[in-house]
Amino acid sequence: MGTPRAESPHRHPERFFPVAILSQAAENDEYVPTSGIRAFHDLLMPHHTTDPARLGYVEYPGVGHFLSPEFNDQTIRRTVAWFRRRLV
């Protein structure tokens, strides 16, 4: 796969603000490790200090990539609520 290019967005966290970003992760995801998602949010935080509510991170405990119906419903509700707050 090779190394990420210099222009890869994750290398420029300062460019994301004021974009509102909600990430939802499964604690035991076999395909998308939460460590990378958390690390990305850690990079974004210093650039969102004037409006930290524009960053959201939710980690669903004890589940893998394929969420249970309960957690799947939560992700949908949370996403809809996020967009309702951010798109007005």
Q: Could you give a short account of the major beta sheet?
A: 2 strands, parallel
What is the helix fraction of residues, given as a range? 25-40%
Distance between the termini: 40 Å
Nearest-angstrom radius of gyration? Answer: 14 Å
What structural category arises from helix and sheet content? alpha+beta
Strand order of the largest sheet: 1-2
Report the strand count. 2
Share of residues in strands: 5-15%
Residue windows where pLDDT falls under 50 for at least 5 positions: none
Name the helix and strand elements from N-terminus to C-terminus, one letter apiece.
EHEH
Q: Mean pLDDT, rounded to whole units? A: 92
Q: Which term fits the overall shape?
A: flat
Number of domains: 1
Helix count, DSSP H or I runs of 4 or more residues: 2
Structure description:
By secondary structure, this protein is of the alpha+beta class. It has one domain (25-86). The chain contains two helices and two strands. The chain has helices spanning 34-44, 69-86; strands at 21-26, 55-60. The protein has a two-stranded parallel ribbon with strand order 1-2. The model has no long low-confidence stretch (mean pLDDT 92).
List its traits.
alpha+beta, two-stranded parallel ribbon, 88 residues, flat
Topology:
Elements: E1 21-26, H1 34-44, E2 55-60, H2 69-86
Parallel strand pairs: 1-2
In short:
The chain is an alpha+beta fold and 88 residues long. It has 2 helices and 2 strands; from the N terminus they run E-H-E-H. It has helices at 34-44, 69-86; strands at 21-26, 55-60.
